[in-house]
Every structure is written in C-alpha cells, then in structure tokens.
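Figure 6 in text form: structure in, sequence out.
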C-alpha cells in the first residue's frame, strides 16, 4: 500500500512539473512587470519587435513592414553588442588604471567620460529605434496593437 502511495505521489509530482514548465515559459519573455521594476529601454524595444512580429497577421503587417522590422531589430542588436563590448572594455581599463601605484587622474576621467558617452549613445540609439518602430505602424495597426495589449494577448 505504501508503495502505491509513493508511486502516486511520484506520478503527481512528475505531472506537476510538466504543467509548471509551460506556465513558467509563458511568463518568460520581455520583462515581468510583476517584479516591480521597469524594463530597460533595450528590453522594451526587443520585446516590442518580437511581439509585433508574433502578431503580424492580426496586425496585417505588409511584407515590407516585416522586413523593415527584422532588419531594424538585427541592426540594433548588432549595435548593442558592439556598444556593450566597448563599455566593458572601458570599465576594465578604468579598473586596471586604479590598480596602478600612481593613478593618472586625467586619463581616468577621460576613460570615465568615454564610457558614459558610449552609454548615452547606446540609449539614444534604442530610443530612436523605438520611435522609428512606432512610426512604421499605421494608425489602424497601432490601434490593434493597443487592443491586443488590453486583451492581455501580448505580455508587456
């Protein structure tokens, strides 16, 4: 009898894992607003492009719009990778400079300025791309996109 109970518990546990996994995957994605923090501009941009493309039929996107969105997404992704690499390199250079016995103050401040200039440019690129993405959709498509959000068909 105990063996049967154990088998039933193992079966129920295994089945619950099978149900939990799809639920967890459905919650993944753009950004979980329930975490209490606003997603970054970068995450918002990529989430928006993904969700627009996932709902291309409902939004009646043209082939040209689809291609433009895909091209824009790829271009921004490449720029973000390059920008992050530059920022990381500058951060490492700053750290290396701080480990020296005598720190070159002018060089340190120059590297800091360069790092934050890079971050500023990265953010501006994302905002500009986000604006371009919204301009790409016509009024009817924007209206439909808002309806999809309201119906919770698209996870923000």
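Output sequence:
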């Amino acid at each position: 009898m105990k063996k049967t109970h154990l088998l039933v518990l193992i079966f129920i546990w295994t089945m619950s894992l099978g149900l939990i996994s799809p639920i967890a995957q459905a919650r993944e994605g753009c950004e979980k607003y329930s975490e209490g923090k606003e997603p970054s501009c970068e995450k918002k941009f990529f989430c928006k492009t993904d969700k627009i493309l996932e709902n291309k039929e409902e939004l009646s996107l043209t082939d040209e719009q689809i291609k433009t969105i895909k091209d824009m997404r790829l271009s921004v992704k490449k720029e973000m990778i390059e920008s992050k690499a530059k920022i990381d390199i500058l951060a490492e250079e700053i750290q290396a400079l701080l480990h020296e016995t005598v720190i070159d103050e002018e060089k340190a401040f120059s590297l800091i300025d360069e790092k934050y200039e890079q971050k500023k440019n990265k953010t501006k690129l994302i905002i500009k791309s986000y604006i371009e993405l919204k301009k790409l959709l016509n009024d009817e498509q924007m209206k439909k996109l808002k309806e999809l959000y309201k119906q919770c068909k698209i996870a923000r």
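Caption detail: The CA atoms of residues 41 and 124 lie 10 Å apart.
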